Write a sequence for this structure.
């Protein structure tokens, strides 16, 4: 499996900020919404990200940072996938990609400019449900 491209900063490789959504698929499908069934995390806590384990993750991100979103199901037999990320396109334009030789998808985007607080919503495909379920509360990028 190949990794995502890395941006060089001061001659050193810089990894993307990974944002992971852990979804209680059974609970979300039963409720018909994500509220209380979504746990967000990122790899940028040391830079000031907050809200870990909640639906309102605040990811510290700056211009030029690459963001990589992925989703995991809390239950091993459940299906979850990100269907879309709704965010101000002047800040970031996430695009869906698949790791070569697999069907494992992720979403990636680069922060275009610093912004004090930009909220976004994630749309999830769960189980065999046709319509995606969007986050109720918004996570955000903080500058």
């Amino acid at each position: 499996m190949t990794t995502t491209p890395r941006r060089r900063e001061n001659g050193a490789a810089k990894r993307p900020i990974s944002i992971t959504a852990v979804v209680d698929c059974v609970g979300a499908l039963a409720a018909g919404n994500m509220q209380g069934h979504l746990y967000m995390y990122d790899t940028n806590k040391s830079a000031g990200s907050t809200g870990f384990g909640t639906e309102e993750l605040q990811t510290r991100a700056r211009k030029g940072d690459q963001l990589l979103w992925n989703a995991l199901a809390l239950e091993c037999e459940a299906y979850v996938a990100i269907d879309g990320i709704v965010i101000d396109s002047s800040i970031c334009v996430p695009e869906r990609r698949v790791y070569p030789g697999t069907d494992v998808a992720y979403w990636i985007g680069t922060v275009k400019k610093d912004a004090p607080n930009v909220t976004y919503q994630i749309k999830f495909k769960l189980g065999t449900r046709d319509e995606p379920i969007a986050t109720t509360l918004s996570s955000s990028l903080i500058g």
